[in-house]
Amino acid sequence: MTILYIAEVVGKAGIYALKKALPDLKKNRQVDFTVVCADGATGGKGLGRNHAAYIRKLGADVITTGDYSFYKKDLVEHWPRLPYVLRPANLGPPVSEVPGSGWRVFKAGDGQKTAAVLVLLGTNFNRLRASSPFEELPALLKKLRTETPYVLLDFHAWASGEKRTLFAAAAGYCTAVIGSHNRVQTADEGIINGTALICDAGRTGSTESVGGTDSSIRIREYLTGIPEWKGETWDKCELQGVLIESDSQGKARSIERIRIPVPANANAPQSQQT
Predict the structure, then answer these.
(1) Which of 31, 110, 172, 229 is the most exposed place for a label (fewest CB within 10 A)?
(2) DSSP secondary structure code for residue 124 in this structure
(3) Helices (H), the chain
């Protein structure tokens, strides 16, 4: 199976890059299953209901979120009707009171195969209440592997040390563990015991920015201590992510970093294209 993971989509520029690059990428690389991280798709912070539907229309089989899962009220209200959108599985306790699902098994390729996607949230520097991903991991992977050999884990976490430690715990028990949240593509991709790993798949959107947002605004935020979540930028848009090839047993054979430059949107503000 060929699995495509699209790195975190950030803002309008990220949606635009996805629209322009994803269809050809899926066709040219004969992708069977596509996972899109969209934790910052709406204004750089969270995922709105309309953007979720649009990303699905563009070709995502699954959409993952992270610590911004519940930042957009319209999405929270629609969780029961959006089985293709996942939030972290280790939120809570009690997890029964958290809307949505943190894992699910989906049809893949021609529909004759299935693939599971699981999202876990790191606990280092995290603002949401979450149980230990290390405690949740064994039971969840055991359950999912009884349903399909293809299991992809999106680990949404700040610290590379926590990510690498979870990689060690998961190696050999799933097809891939893809790090997200930092929005900077790392160069540590590899395979351990048949599990493809990378600390961070990057971001889809403006790469000449700070996490997909205007650099001047981020500088002002550090100077004043006042948070700002505006100022999307279109500078040097790219679609980023990883492509994973696995055998029939769900063991990864290769992992390849993806970076596709996308020409600037003609409708973007002129000041954001220079």
Answers:
(1) 110
(2) T
(3) 11-28, 49-58, 73-76, 133-145, 160-170, 215-224
User: To 5 degrees, how large is the angle CA 156–CA 111–CA 195?
Assistant: 40
Residue 271 has a pLDDT of 42
Tell me the pLDDT tens digit for each residue of 156-210. 999 999 999 999 999 999 999 999 999 999 999 999 999 999 999 999 999 988 8
Q: What whole-number distance in Å separates Cα of residue 14 and Cα of residue 32?
A: 22
Taking residue 51's Cβ as centre, other Cβ atoms within 10 Å add up to: 23
Q: Are the beta carbons of 186 and 200 closer than 8 angstroms?
A: yes
> 3-state DSSP call for residue 209?
coil
Q: According to the 3-state scheme, what is the secondary structure of 21-76? A: HHHHHHHHCCCCEEEEECCECCCCCCCCHHHHHHHHHHCCCEEECCCCCCCCHHHH
CA atoms within 13 A on the CB side of 40: 26
Q: Return the closest-CA partner of residue 231 out of 37, 84, 55, 43.
A: 43
- The structure tokens listed for 164 are 């690498």
Element spanning 120, H or E: strand 113-121
Token pair 């699902």: residue: 101
What's the average model confidence in pLDDT over 202-224? 88
Contact status, residue 67 vs residue 126, Cβ threshold 8 Å = yes
DSSP letter assigned to residue 194? T
Closest among 259, 260, 214, 266 to 235, alpha carbons compared: 214
Angle between helices 133-145 and 160-170 (to 10 degrees): 40
